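Can you please make up a protein's amino acid sequence together with its fold in token form to help me picture the idea?
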Amino acid sequence: MSATIGPTPRWSRRSWAFLKNFNVNQRLSSDRWMAIKRMQDKSREALEPTKREYNRLYADWQKRLRCLGGDPSTLGLENFRPLRLSREEDWSDWLAWLLEKSETGVLAETLFGTVMNCEAASLKSLTIEREVYTEDQERRADIVVTWKSPEGQGTHVEVKVQDDRFTKTFETAKKLEAAKPGTTWYHFILITDEVMPAWTEVGKRLHKHKEIDISSILWGDVVRGLRRCLWEGLECLVWRAWAWSFCGAIEQKLLGLRTPSPYQSEVSQLQMTLAWLDVLKL
């Protein structure tokens, strides 16, 4: 019985002649990668001095704050939450406590001194109130400071973490001044870098509140003030412990600072290192 021969399979009819064009000994030219390699080398060269400066400053901070556990960046906040940080009021509470309990006035001077034209020594005697209602009960001021010296001066701070509704800040300031006409007021708003353009735009738009002068403070300024206090080491240990924790919380949660990782690209490492140098240098 003869076998039935069917049609030739389609794959067997294909020509394999194209394989002749392959040369296993042929190497891909690296010329095309030279430009990229040179760029990478330049990036590494640019990063190296910055990394050395960061490493030097970081080592100095680690040594200086050894009694508190080293640099605040070592604080792990994933599972340790000494205070709630989910609302702006939580951040305000922590900052207000540190201002009130400071024995040197250095933190207050860092934040307010330039505008108020005062030195640290005159900014350590104060009374702080939180969530102060205006007389008509329509607005609440986040932090209100009454200074014993300089006498007759008050400081109002609006604390912003995520909220960018700035109009009420002017209204609150105006109502505070109306309630205490004999007080010399200094108004501040504490914000992140990201919302600074929005804050500037609101200030330009609200011409009717031009008589109210509100100065901006960045959360990075708070970090620099805290680190200055920690470096000088003149506050009591309890104060420094809470300042150390607050500093780490701000850096990690609000400023997005993380220890530069070798697993990041050179550009990412450089960006993070430069951000760190901005707060590590006193």
Notes: The chain has a mean pLDDT of 84. Strands lie at 126-133, 140-147, 153-159, 184-191, 214-218. The chain has one domain: 78-280.
